[in-house]
Design a protein that fits this description.
51% of the residues lie in helices and 16% in strands. Helix 14 packs across helix 16 and helix 16 runs parallel beside helix 19.
């Protein structure tokens, strides 16, 4: 780095002690812009990502290294928040993640870098190299901890809630994509004009090295897989402990390992899922006791499955379609509600790469049956117990809404009455923070109404609506949310399969919710 250097950048090859040396000479201002903001796509600053020996001015180079790594860490944290908007609060990050993700992401875009990366990870020097590089990231992370971007506990870093919220608020995804495109463009421009021709000229003098690099470039994806998977250092909490996102355990492997089922024991897998998801029940005998575990498979919804939903809810509600997105919502909201004392099935294990979540099997009765009993009864006194349960569900909705959570899919069949009378909330793959709470209320009430037969009077539908709304308001639910559930925006969605007189009755009760609150 040379202050006031003209031209701004040049590179050339020198022979020193019978070895080829590539010399990059750069103006200090240009180099520091590359460190600060990737001015040249880190074509020059990228050298600080690898171990280096400072022949002079170590303090200066070290300060630039920490500045670069701090920026890289922030960019990776932003990506995690945007890729896992719900789960990012709970992801436990080992510092090694930043080492491998930074190097791998650049090697995928620039194949010649794989040659250096594989040398960096060579068995006899890998631990030493990683340790030297990791030290700078640890310094950067400690600085970010002081700035309350991350917190540190038990060997893991976690993203702070304030930082995650600010990232989503700034909507940096578009900015990051634009910045990434600019970086790639600048890096390509720099390579074509200077660095790459010199580099290839140097390699052409060494046939063995050139042939090796060509083979690596041709087998790019295979070579990259030789390097440690960065997601091994991203972990999510489960009832059984932290599980890395790189986990690839399938259904039967889980049953045998986590449930301690030997190879000679039979594992039964039954499909119990609905239309849009594959859900399985695992049954296995462990020490003479039958164990049951539910497995949800989060496949990406095909256009065939997605199209009817789009038509059904157009203008009212959008759904998460990606399997990974739905999986992270399921895990994140489940863990959050569990930490707040709500009855939810515990997450036992997660296999993100296989899009699988293994959950506790809940014994009890589906709430749908209680609602059906009310709607088929002609005697309100005989269903007093069921109405009490529906009122309790309303209270739970209000308490969850008070935490800023919207559940997203609130059909009665997504709730279970446990053996001790507790209400288990199930299915959080469409849940979110600060989502549409009106939808939660509307879907529960109008979907419950669709269980009514044509011969059912409107009075029983009113009983269900009143019980739920009274419970919701009793627990502090916002009356305005209930009243808005009567808007055509929501009623039009459910009028397709709920009888008109039932829809009219329920929406009428919602509009008069302020009177129920006074009562």
């Amino acid at each position: 780095m040379i202050r006031g250097f003209q031209p701004r950048f040049m590179n050339y090859v020198k022979v020193f002690d019978k070895r080829n040396i590539v010399v990059n000479a750069v103006d200090q201002w240009v180099f520091e812009r590359d460190v600060d903001r990737g001015f040249l796509g880190e074509a020059l600053a990228g050298g600080l990502m690898f171990p280096y020996i400072a022949l002079a001015n170590w303090d200066y180079l070290h300060a630039q290294e920490i500045k670069l790594k701090k920026r890289l860490v922030i960019e990776l944290l932003e990506s995690l928040v945007l890729d896992f908007p719900e789960l990012s609060y709970d992801v436990h990050i080992k510092p090694e993640y930043f080492v491998y993700e930074t190097l791998l992401s650049r090697a995928r875009l620039y194949p010649p870098m794989i040659y250096y990366l594989l040398n960096f990870m060579r068995g006899d020097v890998a631990d030493k190299n990683v340790g030297r590089v990791l030290h700078g990231y640890l310094e950067a992370l400690k600085a970010l901890e002081r700035e309350e971007v991350v917190s540190f506990s038990s060997g893991y870093f976690k993203i702070s809630r304030d930082f995650a919220d600010s990232v989503r608020g700034r909507r940096v995804r578009f900015v990051s994509l634009l910045k990434g495109a600019q970086k790639a463009q600048k890096a390509l421009f720099t390579s074509l004009l200077g660095i790459l021709p010199r580099f290839m000229s140097l390699l052409s003098q060494n046939r063995e090295v050139l042939l090796r690099l060509q083979r690596i470039a041709q087998a790019n994806s295979e070579s990259v897989r030789q390097v440690e998977d960065p997601q091994k250092y991203l972990c999510v909490p489960t009832a059984g402990g932290l599980v890395p996102l790189s986990n690839r355990m399938d259904i039967e492997a889980f049953a045998r390992k986590v449930l301690s089922v030997s190879a000679e024991r039979k594992v039964r897998i039954e499909e119990i899922g609905g239309v849009l998801n594959n859900v399985y029940l695992i049954k296995a005998s462990v020490n003479g006791v039958e164990r049951k575990v539910v497995v949800k498979s989060f496949k990406d919804w095909s256009s065939f499955k997605w199209f009817p939903l789009t038509l059904w809810t157009i203008g009212t509600r959008t759904f998460a379609v990606s399997g990974l997105s739905r999986l992270e919502k399921e895990c994140a909201i489940n863990q959050f509600l569990d930490s707040k004392g709500f009855a939810v099935p515990k997450v036992l294990h997660v296999s993100p790469s296989e899009r699988l979540v293994f959950m506790e099997y809940v014994e009890g009765e589906n709430l749908e049956k209680a609602v059906r009993r009310v709607l088929s009864s002609k005697d309100a006194g005989r269903v007093e117990k069921e109405l009490g349960i529906i009122g309790l569900v309303g209270e739970i909705f209000a308490e969850i809404h008070a935490l800023g959570i919207s559940l997203g899919d609130t059909k009665p069949e997504n709730m279970m009455v446990g053996k001790k009378g507790e209400i288990f909330m199930l299915d959080f793959e469409q849940a979110s923070r600060n989502g549409d709470k009106v939808w939660d209320v509307a879907e529960f009430l109008y979907y419950a109404g669709h269980y009514a037969t044509p011969f059912v009077g409107a009075q029983v539908a009113e009983l269900v609506a009143r019980a739920f709304i009274e419970g919701y308001l009793k627990a502090g639910g916002d009356v305005r949310i209930v009243k808005r559930a009567a808007n055509p925006k929501y009623t039009k969605v459910f009028s397709i399969f709920t009888l008109p007189h039932i829809m009219l009755t329920i929406s009428s009760v919602c509009r008069k919710a302020d009177k129920l609150k006074k009562a």
